[in-house]
């Protein structure tokens, strides 16, 4: 599928293997276009998280390329890497282990600003980020363990958006949360997508969350992309058997009566 | 016939705070009850109190009575609250056994799967040698594990999460409990594996006529397997009824929120499947 808009972030023909073991990703290409949030869907071990690590620049493909704004990521190109770090931020799955318990929330949220050297108006930026995720102003002076799981995930999201990135990469951002908290965090991500022109790339096996948040889906099976397209098209008319099985497996409430 | 009667159950923390507060319900033999609530709502604590496994430092009061004629030296009623550890040990497995959320921590990482499954079979059924080996293979086959001989020789880390949870289920069933407690048994699993494990549990409970207490934060999962549900919030049972009643006519505001959240996620998926997605949940 070709789109006229240039991708912000792209993986081209990537192969990846940890050491000498069997390949985790085989010839994977995905492109993230602005305003088109993308879900990476698949079973554990399908390679979703590894693909996300490539997109985050935390791992380099064994062969193939990762491009930001059309330029191949190169750890030595410091200007590009800085731009990339500012433009692409992440939220992890487990809000209980991704926040340092010894640091106050304000310091946690300001971390990307400090590491990027954006020291101007730091307090105001942190306050704006906390406000954007719906946390009270005094949250900055408290510790993460004073917050519930859903609130902690909001803190992690505030940290990710504080430097106003263009892409938010999230690894199962709501799967550790209770269902009603999950819905609220999905709402928050939807809002941020619109108000902050954020494109979300999300690893998930929860198709309901995918449907709520992402316009595009790529389905991975054993390190290969087996199906890709618009969410409505992939979920409405799945071609690959695994995609069909995934849709049939989603637990549903019994249909409402009357 | 009533198997389990929980009456006025309280579990109190060391600072005197109620983790479970005045919970009462009954469970018939072969009946399936879902316990639903968010993390910290007291659902796992209720299950631990039923098995007499509450951690030290917590105070349990109220009553948890099993009616199992003929199970224990002709005694018909067994009160768990206040019972001695030795007596509980002798009853555990036959009265209840539990499948926990995370099979990787529930299984011993240093012991081959076959030996772990053999342990309850040896203790409860007194099997040895070839008979024990055959019983282990049969137990693994019963949870639909293909190639049970290979699984039996494997260590837990050598098999998948779904296979591990099947092993944990085989161990829980080894003593033929009257009540199987499943505490978030599919939460750590992929959606497709979750569907398979739910189908498996459904079939096993049916075949054996076991009662099932199924604990989850996910109303959709609970409604797939339970007949009745109890909704817990902050240690208090705020609503109970048949799955149909609770899902179609929730009374408590908290239950309404739970149902509403689940319906919204269903709706997002439906509108995507119908090709009507516009990026907003309805």
From TrEMBL, chain A:
<comment type="similarity">
    <text>Belongs to the ABC transporter superfamily.</text>
</comment>
<dbReference type="InterPro" id="IPR027417">
    <property type="entry name" value="P-loop_NTPase"/>
</dbReference>
<dbReference type="InterPro" id="IPR050319">
    <property type="entry name" value="ABC_transp_ATP-bind"/>
</dbReference>
<dbReference type="GO" id="GO:0016887">
    <property type="term" value="F:ATP hydrolysis activity"/>
</dbReference>
<dbReference type="GO" id="GO:0015833">
    <property type="term" value="P:peptide transport"/>
</dbReference>
<keyword id="KW-0813">Transport</keyword>
<keyword id="KW-0067">ATP-binding</keyword>
<protein>
    <submittedName>
        <fullName>ABC-type dipeptide/oligopeptide/nickel transport system, ATPase component</fullName>
    </submittedName>
</protein>
<dbReference type="GO" id="GO:0055085">
    <property type="term" value="P:transmembrane transport"/>
</dbReference>
<dbReference type="InterPro" id="IPR003593">
    <property type="entry name" value="AAA+_ATPase"/>
</dbReference>
<feature type="domain" description="ABC transporter">
    <location>
        <begin position="9"/>
        <end position="247"/>
    </location>
</feature>
<keyword id="KW-0547">Nucleotide-binding</keyword>
<dbReference type="InterPro" id="IPR003439">
    <property type="entry name" value="ABC_transporter-like_ATP-bd"/>
</dbReference>
<dbReference type="InterPro" id="IPR017871">
    <property type="entry name" value="ABC_transporter-like_CS"/>
</dbReference>
<dbReference type="InterPro" id="IPR013563">
    <property type="entry name" value="Oligopep_ABC_C"/>
</dbReference>
<dbReference type="Pfam" id="PF08352">
    <property type="entry name" value="oligo_HPY"/>
</dbReference>
<dbReference type="Pfam" id="PF00005">
    <property type="entry name" value="ABC_tran"/>
</dbReference>
<dbReference type="GO" id="GO:0005524">
    <property type="term" value="F:ATP binding"/>
</dbReference>
Automatic annotation (TrEMBL), chain B:
<dbReference type="InterPro" id="IPR050388">
    <property type="entry name" value="ABC_Ni/Peptide_Import"/>
</dbReference>
<keyword id="KW-1003">Cell membrane</keyword>
<comment type="similarity">
    <text>Belongs to the ABC transporter superfamily.</text>
</comment>
<protein>
    <submittedName>
        <fullName>ABC-type dipeptide/oligopeptide/nickel transport system, ATPase component</fullName>
    </submittedName>
</protein>
<dbReference type="Pfam" id="PF00005">
    <property type="entry name" value="ABC_tran"/>
</dbReference>
<dbReference type="InterPro" id="IPR003593">
    <property type="entry name" value="AAA+_ATPase"/>
</dbReference>
<keyword id="KW-0067">ATP-binding</keyword>
<dbReference type="GO" id="GO:0005524">
    <property type="term" value="F:ATP binding"/>
</dbReference>
<keyword id="KW-0813">Transport</keyword>
<dbReference type="GO" id="GO:0016887">
    <property type="term" value="F:ATP hydrolysis activity"/>
</dbReference>
<feature type="domain" description="ABC transporter">
    <location>
        <begin position="4"/>
        <end position="259"/>
    </location>
</feature>
<dbReference type="InterPro" id="IPR027417">
    <property type="entry name" value="P-loop_NTPase"/>
</dbReference>
<keyword id="KW-0472">Membrane</keyword>
<dbReference type="InterPro" id="IPR003439">
    <property type="entry name" value="ABC_transporter-like_ATP-bd"/>
</dbReference>
<dbReference type="GO" id="GO:0005886">
    <property type="term" value="C:plasma membrane"/>
</dbReference>
<dbReference type="InterPro" id="IPR017871">
    <property type="entry name" value="ABC_transporter-like_CS"/>
</dbReference>
<keyword id="KW-0547">Nucleotide-binding</keyword>
């Amino acid at each position: 599928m070709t789109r006229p808009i240039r991708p912000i972030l792209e993986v081209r023909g990537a192969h990846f293997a940890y050491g000498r073991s069997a390949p985790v990703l085989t010839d994977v290409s995905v492109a993230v276009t602005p305003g088109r949030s993308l879900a990476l869907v698949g079973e554990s071990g399908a390679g979703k998280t590894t693909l996300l690590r490539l997109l985050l620049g935390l791992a380099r493909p064994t062969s193939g390329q990762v491009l930001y704004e059309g330029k191949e990521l190169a750890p030595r190109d410091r200007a590009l890497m800085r731009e990339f770090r500012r433009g692409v931020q992440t939220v992890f799955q487990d809000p209980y282990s991704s926040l340092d318990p010894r640091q106050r929330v304000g310091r946690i949220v300001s971390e990307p600003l400090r590491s990027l050297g954006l020291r101007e108006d730091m307090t105001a930026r942190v306050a704006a980020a906390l406000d954007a995720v719906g946390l009270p102003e005094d949250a900055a002076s408290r510790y993460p363990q004073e917050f519930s799981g859903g609130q902690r995930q909001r803190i992690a999201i505030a940290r990710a958006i504080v430097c106003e990135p263009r892409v938010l990469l999230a690894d199962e951002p709501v799967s550790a949360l209770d269902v009603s908290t999950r819905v609220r965090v999905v709402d928050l991500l939807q809002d941020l997508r619109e108000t902050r022109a954020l494109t979300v790339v999300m690893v998930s096996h929860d198709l309901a969350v995918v449907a709520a948040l992402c316009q595009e889906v790529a389905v991975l099976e054993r390190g290969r992309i087996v199906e890709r397209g618009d969410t409505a098209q992939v979920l409405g008319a799945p071609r690959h058997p695994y995609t069909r099985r995934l849709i049939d497996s989603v637990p549903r409430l019994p249909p409402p009566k009357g | 016939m009533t198997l389990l009667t929980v009456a006025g159950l309280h579990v109190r923390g060391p600072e005197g705070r109620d983790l479970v507060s005045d919970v009462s319900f009954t469970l018939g033999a072969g009946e399936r009850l879902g316990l639903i609530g968010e993390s910290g709502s007291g659902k796992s604590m209720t299950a631990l109190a039923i098995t007499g496994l509450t951690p030290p430092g917590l105070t349990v009061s109220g009553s948890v009575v099993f009616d199992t004629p003929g199970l224990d030296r002709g005694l018909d009623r067994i009160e768990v609250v206040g019972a001695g550890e030795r007596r509980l040990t002798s009853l555990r497995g036959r009265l209840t056994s539990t499948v926990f959320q995370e099979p990787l921590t529930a299984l011993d990482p240093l012991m081959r799967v076959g030996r772990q499954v053999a342990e309850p079979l040896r203790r409860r059924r007194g099997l040895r040698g070839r008979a024990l080996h055959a019983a282990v293979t049969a137990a693994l086959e019963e949870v639909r594990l293909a190639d049970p001989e290979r699984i039996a020789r494997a260590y837990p880390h050598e098999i998948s999460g779904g296979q591990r949870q099947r092993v944990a289920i085989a161990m829980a069933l080894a003593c033929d409990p009257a009540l199987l407690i499943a505490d978030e048994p599919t939460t750590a699993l992929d959606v497709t594996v979750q569907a398979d494990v739910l189908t498996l549990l459904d079939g096993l409970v049916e075949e054996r006529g076991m009662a099932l207490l199924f604990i989850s934060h996910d109303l959709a999962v609970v409604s797939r397997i339970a007949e009745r549900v109890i909704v817990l919030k902050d240690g208090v049972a705020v609503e109970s009824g048949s799955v149909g009643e609770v899902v179609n006519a929730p009374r408590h505001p908290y239950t309404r929120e739970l149902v509403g959240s689940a319906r919204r996620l269903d709706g997002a998926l439906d509108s995507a499947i119908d090709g009507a997605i516009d990026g907003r949940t309805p």
